[in-house]
Structure formats: C-alpha cells, structure tokens
Amino acid sequence: MKESQRPDSESRLKPISRRALLQSASAVAVAGVMGNRSFAESSDATPAAQPDKSKAFPDKFLWGCATAGHQVEGNNTSSDLWLMEHLPESIFKEPSGDACDHYHLYPQDISMLADLGFNAYRFSLEWARIEPEEGFFSNAELEHYRRMLAACREHHLTTLLTYSHFSVPRWFAFKGGWQNPAAPDLYARFCEKATRRLGDLVDYASTFNEPDIPQLLNWINLPGTQGKSLIEALQGGLGKMRQQLNAPDFANFFIGDGKRIRDGVLAAHHKGKAAMKSARSDMPVGFNLAMSDDQPAPEDSHLAEKRADVYGPWLEVAKQCDYLGVQVYSRSIVGKKDLPPPKGAETTQVGWEFYPECVEHVVRYASKETGVPVIVTENGIATNDDTRRVEYFQRALAGLKRAIDDGVDVRGYVCWSLLDNFEWMSGFEPKFGIVAVDLATQKRTIKPSGAMLGNIATRNSL
Ligand code: BGC
To answer: What pLDDT, in 10s, does the model give residues 86-110?
Structure first.
C-alpha cells in the first residue's frame, strides 16, 4: 500500500467559501459541454434568479449527499472488511487504507457540503470503532461521531445517520456475523448505546443500509460466468477465506448463507429499532433499501418473483417505519434473472446502464407499496466524465419532480456520493463523487456536477 502524504494543515482545514467553490467549479465547467450547451449554462442559473414555481420542490425538501464510514474514513482496522482486504488472496482489488481520511477531515468536508448549498448529510457509524472488542464500548469514538453530528448542526444540516453500512466488527464476523443467533441482541445493544449518546443530534436514523443486498445478489449474473450469480461467485472463495483467517464460522453481510443472513438482519432490524426507540422514542427510524427499476423481459420474466424475494419482506417492514430510504442507480430487465443492459446502451464504470429515469419509477413503486414517506437516500453514477453525471442528475431530478407533482410523498434527495471513495471490492477506480479526492494529498476538488446540484439545492428548484 502506498503511504499517503498528509496535506499541509492550511489547505486541509481552511474553510472554503461558497463563492470560491462555485467559481472553481464553474472554471472547470467551461471546459466541458453537455449536448451543445456548456455546463455552466445548463446547470448554473444564478441562485439569485427568480425561481420558476413550476420547477420548485416542496418546502423543507432535503437536499443531501451521502457517504459511508468504511468507504471514506480510512483505517477502519477493527472491521471485518479491513481484514478481508489484507488477505493474501483478497477478493478486494486494493485495500481501503487511508480512504479519504474523512475521519480527520470531516470538519472541512461538512463545511464544504453546506457551502455548496446542501441542507442534509447522510453518513454512517462504524460499529467496529465503537465496539472494537465484544462488550468494550469506546467513549472516545462515540464522541467522535457526536462531534460530526454537532458539526452538521452548526452548518444547519439535517442529519441522516446509518447505524450499519455493510461493515461489522471483526469479532462479530468471527462469530458468524448475521447468521449468529445472538447477532440481533448484539446489534441492539450497540444501537442502544449509540442512541443514548448521539440520538439527540439525529434527525433520521437508519438501522441498515441495503439489508436486501444478500437477496439482490442472487439475481445478478456475473459476466462470463455462465449464469453464476454474484453471490455464488463470492461464496466460491469462502472456504479458502475461512482457512486463511483460521475462522471456521467467519461470515458477514455479503458472505455466508443468504437466507440466514436475511433472517438475522431482519431480526436485528426489529431489535435495533426497538433499542433506538427505547433510548429516544421520537427519533424517526427507517432503513435504506437497494432497489432497481425492474422491468419485465419480453419472455419468461420472473419480475414478480424477484420483487417478492428481494423487496417483499422489507417493504412489509417499511410499513411500520417512520420513513423509507430508497437507493436506486439503474434499471434491470428481469428475465429468469437480471439480464445484461440492452445492446448498445450506455453503461457506467461499474457496468450499470445509464438510466436516470429509474428514480422516478422506483419512488412511485416504493411509495405505493408502503404508504410511508420516501427519501431517495442514494442515487448517482460512476464515471470519469462529469458531463454524464450532470445529465444523469438533471434527468433523475426531472423524473423525481414529476412523481412529486403527481402526489408521491418524497421528502428528500441525497446523492451518492459526496466524495470519490472506496467502492468496496472495486477499490478506488469507480468515481461516484461530486467532489474529486486526490488520494496522495487528500485535496478535494469540486466537480461541476457538485456545483450544479448545490445550486438546485439552494434554489430548491430545478
Ligand atoms: C451502497 C454504497 C455503494 C453504492 C455504489 C450502494 O449499494 O450503499 O455503499 O458505494 O451503492 O455501488
């Protein structure tokens, strides 16, 4: 792993004014064109311009960016994933290392987000830091997250706090992860402790990020694996991994028996939510569901079966929640399993189809099925060409607006992601951020898409 250079403290910590941010982003913007219009022209109508009422979003609409602890903090050394990243035959392309050093640079990142014009920040706790050994809770780490939440308050940002975003403490994974019958109680104890210390600063809590992933993976074929699902491919390496770790029960969010993981996570959601409410009864609690805009293949479509298998149990659970976070990136044409994107379709760095209309379709579906308020808690694309991200956001938001105008109860839009970050097994290559990060210096550079989205947020209008 390359040793990263520390940025000089001045450039790391100096607050950046909104004006300076937008100027730097617009300077980049003039270099690019979208269709036959420049970025600046297409995206940067001055915030002072009179907003067109027909383009306005509801009052108090949340405009935010999301991150996840393991993907941005760096040095999450007590977690299961850190361990897996450093195995001799790791399934990770590269280790997370210092990531974006958000653990130390959060004051600058949070102020940048607010300066851009956003009014909400979604981030996650790292359970592995807070409870690095079973039963040992670190007050210092809880205080760290309290400072992050307080920084959000200082900048008038609504806080959306995810308690579990994939990674778990390594001791928890050694005991069988979510398959361990004790998992729901272990998780609930963590939720209770965290809420007692942090709950007064949390506006929206989430028990789990994408708890349906273990099921969703069964529907995704890996290119070149003759119908083998992604989960089957991951499981293939499980025996070897357990051997290398000398941990016969090792399992986590992605790895293990999908059905047992799902049942463990479901039980942990219920107990975790009850524990949160016992510490702060009026804290809104929900979770973030991974959803694709599923569309039937012309023949032999198993769409209804997929929906029942992947989302079904969670949409039921959502009915008892205060809100539902939906996370959507693209569409899937569902045959026997998800089919590859149509021939000739534009795809992004991670192979997903460029299909911004997925947001509109999914919020309509999620709202109809559950009847609870919906927040889009992740949406974006992985690309090195920011002009494509600008167009993606504009079309996604136009669709979201159509749904809202039709009466769908959507309370906010949170993009993925604030920063170019550690994209799990794919390492740092896919670029989802509206802000670029130089991994050697930790310098942040706002992309035109960030300035554009920030302006929409400021105007609360397209
Ligand atoms: C996850 C993020 C991830 C993003 C892009 C979502 O599934 O919550 O952690 O980086 O998608 O793959």
So the answer is: 998 888 999 999 999 999 999 999 9
- Please indicate whether residue 28 or residue 35 has the higher confidence score (pLDDT): 28
Angle, CA 69 vertex, CA 65 and CA 74 arms, to 5°: 120
pLDDT confidence of residue 36: 30
User: CA-to-CA distance for 366 and 375, rounded, in angstroms?
Assistant: 10
Quick check: CB of 213 below 6 Å from ligand 1?
no
**Segment 245-288, tens digit of pLDDT:** 999 999 999 888 888 999 999 999 999 999 999 999 999 999 99
Please provide the DSSP assignment of 174-241 as one string: HTTGGGSTTHHHHHHHHHHHHHHHHGGG-SEEEEEE-TTHHHHGGGBBPTTSTT-BHHHHHHHTHHHH
Nearest residue to 30 via CA among 21, 42, 39: 39
Q: Which of helix, strand or coil describes residue 459?
A: helix
Query: In this structure, what are the phi and psi dihedrals at residue 254, rounded to the nearest 5 degrees?
Result: -95, -25
* Total Cβ atoms within 10 A of residue 37: 10
Q: Is 437 helix (H, G, I), strand (E, B) or coil?
A: strand
Task: State whether the beta carbon of 72 lies less than 6 angstroms from ligand 1.
Answer: no
User: Of 379, 339, 55, 80, which Cα lies nearest the Cα of 220?
Assistant: 339
Cα(49) to centroid(ligand 1), Å? 35
**What's the chain's Rg over C-alpha atoms?**
21
User: CB of 210 closer than 6 A to ligand 1?
Assistant: yes
Q: Does residue 82 come out as left (phi exceeding 0), alpha (psi in the -120 to 50 range) or beta?
A: alpha
Pairing of strands 120-124, 435-437: unpaired
Ligand 1 centroid to Cα of residue 226, in Å, is 25
Write the residue with the smallest CA distance to atom 9 of ligand 1.
68
Q: Does the global pTM surpass 0.70?
A: yes
Q: In whole angstroms, what separates CA 142 from the centre of its chain?
A: 21
Q: Assign residue 401 a region (left: φ > 0; alpha: ψ between -120 and 50; beta: otherwise).
A: alpha
Contact 318, 289 (CB under 8 A): yes
Reported as half-sphere exposure (CB side, CA atoms, 13 A), residue 245 has a value of: 26
